Fold this sequence. Notes:
The structure is a single chain. This protein has helices spanning about 5-15, 20-30, 35-50, 50-60, 70-85, 90-105, 110-125, 135-140, 140-150, 155-165, 180-190, and strands spanning about 170-175, 195, 200-205, 220-225. The chain is of the alpha+beta class. The chain has 2 domains: about 5-125, N-utilizing Substance Protein B Homolog, Chain A; about 170-230, Sun protein, domain 3 (Alpha-Beta Plaits, 2-Layer Sandwich), CATH 3.30.70. A 4-stranded antiparallel sheet has the order 2-3-1-4, with helices on one face. A hairpin with a 5-residue loop joins strand 2 and strand 3. Helix 1 (about 5-15) packs parallel to helix 3 and helix 5 (about 70-85) runs parallel beside helix 7 (about 110-125). The protein is globular.
Amino acid sequence: MNVRALAAKAIYEVLEKGISLSVALPDQQQHLQNGKDKALLAELCYGVMRQLPQLDKCVSDCLAKPFKGKQRILHQLLIVGCYQLYFTRIPAHAAISETAEACRQLRFDGLVKVINGVLRNIQRQDAVLNTDSDTLRFNTPAWFIKRLQQAYPDNWQAIIEQSHQRPPMWLRNNRLSQSREDYLSTLTTQEISAQAGSSPDSILLDSPKDVANLPAFMQGAASVQDGAATWPRHS
């Protein structure tokens, strides 16, 4: 099953069943062997959730009638396709063809032309995504915006904008494999920019990387862990 189909399944689990993405995403990533495919799946899922209100509006406006029941997963698949067209460097023809193929893999062969047609229509429009409301402008639910406005009337917009920023990528060096200094040196030799964090084993990458491209990551030289979590805890 291709990455777009797996992304649609994960997003369906989140939006239709209320399952956390932190659970739904790993469930789908286990079907992939390639590190780059796993990274793409994560990018599609997290990206869709960041831009969900705008993407959902775009797709809904392009459908003659909404999908219902088991076909709702195709609505999520169209959102995945729409995200690729607006927010990734994936060539449009590849994004559309792979998303249409995902429809077939999800066993909706009779609707492949619909998926293909909707995405090609979105591509042809080449329109700016709708920002007619605060929900669409900030890609944030109206109820949450209202609470922020009440609690932080002077800087609620800045809080929302910060919440949509991509988090930094931290590593925890495995001192049983090498010292942090040695691992930083190894990263440098592979042209991966990084710096030591304030806690003993933490490393901050200057830009996120596919873990498959990190030296000896699969052998346990390091793990992905938030910088704060690398501080030792005392009972």
